[in-house]
Amino acid sequence: MKRLLPALAALLVLNAPARAAYLIFPDGDASLKGDTKSAHEAYKKGNFAEALRMFKAEAARGDKEAQFALGRIYEEGRAAEASGAMAENWYRKAAQQGHASAQFNLAVLLLNTQGRAAEGIEWMRKSAESGSSRAMLTLGGMNINGAGMDKNPAEARKWLEKAAGSGEPEAYDALGQMYESGQGVDKSPAKAVEMYESAAKRDFVKSMLRLGLIHLNGLGVEKDGGKAVEWFKRAAEKGNVEGMMALGTMYATGTGVEKKPEEAVTWFRKAAETGDVGGCTKLADAYASGEGVAADDKKALEWYTKAAEKGGAAAMYAISEFHEKGRGVEASPKETVRWTVRAALTGLPLAQREMGKRYRTGKDVNKDTVVAQSWFTRAAYGGDPESALTVADMLITGEGGLPSDPKTAKSILTRAAELGMVEAQLKLADYCEKGLDGRPDLIRAYALALATGENENGKQLRTALEKKMTKEQLDQAKKEYDRLKSAPPAEKPSDKPVAPATPAAPVPAAPVPAASVPAASDAGKKPVP
Predict the structure, then answer these.
(1) Helices 297-309 and 313-325: angle between axes, nearest 10 degrees
(2) What is the DSSP letter of 493?
(3) Helices (H), 146-224
(4) How would you class 421 by CB atoms within 10 Å of its CB: exposed for 0-12, middle for 13-18, buried for 19 or more?
């Protein structure tokens, strides 16, 4: 077994003890007595040498709290040089005396050690049986995700319900996901809402976001924009940026609420002031367009720059447009290209397409068909249909002296067609009909023509193909079309989880439906200017 399964790693990170310098005891130090308590007081004051001496003395006398403290100290490397072996030694001594937190931490260490997962799971069970709600929650997650063990939804539910009974809000949230997805339980939207509300009442922000999405989209309940706002606002008031962005997006688009650009700006500003890239970009968009705030190119550029400094691709592209148009700055082709390249290198298809156009035409760069094709190809595989058509044409015709490559052209067109782009479906149908790769395929061509629906060119293509095809071929084409229809749709860049992107919970891995609020993400998006 490798060092640790990724799913399990996420669980343990989420459930690992807090790392504050003074917080050795995650469940509080009220039970500490005598010199162990004095040692902890010394530790909190930063008298590490004295604390270490006293903890060692008490641990040698068999005090399990002191032994646990030494495990934490050697694991963290604060009052002593970090040592996994020493941490394991002291955790084990305390664990053998039934110390639940020591059992949990020992389990985490072992699960992170190659070849010792089975022992780690055993200690995790012992910790849970000793009353550790963190261990119960982790075991629930491990069973639902199959991390380090076979998936066992029934066992997962057992441990999650125990953890919930101990007051763990994450356990309520995880149970809510199980009821929402029907994983290991009878699917029940009402029960899912009940679980999420129980977690939210315990200030679990992720559940607040889930409830906002549920009410906004009517996922098992009646759509209610007011309730969605209520839950997103509760999350936002806890400092959660995703809640702020959800509110901003709702008011900006009028989704679930009356459209209020000024209110949208209020929430985008709150998110921006935390340093959030999306918030900075959206606030800049508002200043650029004058939506909800007085138009101000200099302020727009200021907020775009803040977003760009944190890696915001859409903000970089917006800055390039500002330099090209001379908005808030002196127009500069050099700066325009520089910022476009920066955005393109982050993977923004829009910027990659723009660089392809520039190299294809020689606008502000040295004309280079090979480089142009490279940028168009990147954008196409990033999901940009326009680039897919362009690069396919270049590959088929051998533009600029490039070798013709129909096979790659077909691959790119297929990707665009799967995204539902009618022009790509038509071009791919034409490709298949003509057999540009040396193998005409009238059946697939007709299926693609059917996929274009009421498009006039698609209708004309179907009519032309019907004159060439036998009844058997047409029947096969219709079956192929049905197969294409039933295939999972390809994911578009703009189909990323919307604001708020529901945070990953430790358990279970049940998908949270995407909301209908337009994405606040900058992936593949064109800025407002």
Answers:
(1) 140
(2) G
(3) 153-165, 169-181, 189-201, 205-217
(4) buried
- CA nearest to 419, candidates 501, 527, 345, 495: 495
> Tell me, what amino acid is at 225?
G
Instruction: Please report which helix (H) or strand (E) contains residue 188, including its range.
Output: none
Q: How far apart are CA 443 and CA 429, in angstroms?
A: 9
Are 175 and 194 within 8 A, CB to CB? no
Per-residue pLDDT of the chain (529 residues; tens, 9 = 90+): 333 334 444 444 344 433 444 468 777 777 889 999 999 999 988 899 999 999 999 999 999 999 999 999 999 887 899 999 999 999 999 999 999 999 999 999 999 999 999 999 999 999 999 999 999 999 999 999 888 888 999 999 999 999 999 999 999 999 999 999 998 899 999 999 999 999 999 999 999 999 999 999 999 899 999 999 999 999 999 999 999 999 999 999 999 999 999 999 999 999 999 999 999 999 999 999 999 999 999 999 999 999 999 999 999 999 999 999 999 999 999 999 999 999 999 999 999 999 999 999 999 999 999 999 999 999 998 889 899 999 999 999 998 777 889 988 998 898 888 888 899 999 999 999 999 888 899 999 999 999 999 999 999 999 999 999 999 999 999 999 998 777 655 555 443 323 333 333 333 332 222 333 333 334 334 443 3
Say how far residue 138 (Cα) sits from the centre of its chain: 21
d(CA 223, CA 375): 43
Alpha-carbon distance of 316 to 314, in angstroms, equals 5
Those residues whose C-beta lies under 8 Å from the C-beta of residue 159, and which sit 6 or more positions away, are 128, 136, 137, 139, 140, 143
- Asked if 307 and 277 touch (Cβ cutoff 8 Å), the reply is yes
With tokens 């008031």, the residue in question is 237
469 CB-side CA count, 13 A: 23
Q: Which of the 8 DSSP states describes residue 238?
A: T
DSSP state of 502: P
Q: pTM score, two decimals?
A: 0.78
Q: Which structure tokens are listed for 350?
A: 């829009």
What six digits make up the tokens of 176?
A: 């809510």
- Kindly calculate the radius of gyration of the chain based on its CA atoms and give it in whole angstroms: 29
CA 90/CA 100 separation, integer angstroms: 13
Nearest to 243 by CA among 218, 220, 212: 212
Q: Which residues of 29-38 are buried (b: 16+ CB within 10 A; e: fewer)?
A: beebeebbbb
Residue with tokens 């010792």: 116
Q: Which DSSP string do the residues of 411-445 spell out, in sequence order?
A: HHHHHHHHTT-HHHHHHHHHHHHHTTTS---HHHH
CA 282 to each of CA 19, 103, 228, 261, 492: distance values in angstroms, whole numbers, following the listed order: 34, 47, 21, 11, 21
**Distance of alpha carbon 398 from alpha carbon 261, whole angstroms:** 49
Mapping DSSP onto H, E and C, the string for 71-108 reads HHHHHHCCCCCCCHHHHHHHHHHHHCCCCHHHHHHHHH
| Rounded Cα–Cα distance for residues 388 and 4 (Å) | 40
Instruction: Give the HSE-up count for residue 305: Cα atoms under 13 Å, Cβ half-sphere.
Output: 10
